Amino acid sequence: MDSKVNTQKYLNNILEKTYDAQRGYANAAEVTDHVDLKRWFAQQGAKRTQYAASLTSEMKGMKEKPEFDGSVTGDMHRGWMNLKAAFSSNKDETILEECLRGEKSAVEEYSEVLEHSKEMPQTVVTILTAQKDEIQSTINQIKRLEDIAEHLND
């Protein structure tokens, strides 16, 4: 398999996860009753929309075909998030736990793709690295939000 085909495959995998995250954050914003969390989830969803646009633009510039949909796994994860939230005594903490799990998975996916950075154009590597770093920062934010949500329930 040549590096162009590999790059397309890697980027489409990341795009799929990005669309899943965008939909997950939109779903979380709908499920929570907390105004500040609604806003934060919506901001995270908007970031993922920007991530997808950036990757899609890069792929089109390389004459590659970007995917425009999420995954069945992502759909199942959102369903699980809704179910857990419905039966949880602290819905916001449960939602944040699921967001954390999703973001950790995204960082792993980015890391796996970046292991093949020599096969990809430097512009793609730069975009992926920046997005991965931002997602890692989001993980830290979620952990702080979880602590706050936990104390609100005490």
Topology:
Elements: H1 3-31, H2 35-61, H3 72-87, H4 91-114, H5 122-153
Short description:
With 154 residues, this protein is mainly alpha-helical. It has helices spanning 3-31, 35-61, 72-87, 91-114, 122-153. The protein has a single domain (3-153), classed as Up-down Bundle (Ferritin), CATH 1.20.1260.10.
Your description of this structure?
By secondary structure, this protein is mostly helical. The chain has one domain (3-153): Ferritin, core subunit, four-helix bundle (Ferritin, Up-down Bundle), CATH 1.20.1260. The chain has helices at 3-31, 35-61, 72-87, 91-114, 122-153. Helix 1 (3-31) runs antiparallel to helix 4 (91-114) and helix 3 (72-87) runs antiparallel to helix 4 (91-114). The N and C termini lie far apart (55 Å).
Radius of gyration: 16 Å
H/E element string? HHHHH
The low-confidence parts are none
Largest sheet: none
Q: State the fourth-level CATH superfamily.
A: Ferritin, core subunit, four-helix bundle
CATH C-level: Mainly Alpha
Task: Using brief descriptors, characterize the structure shown.
elongated; 5 helices; mainly alpha
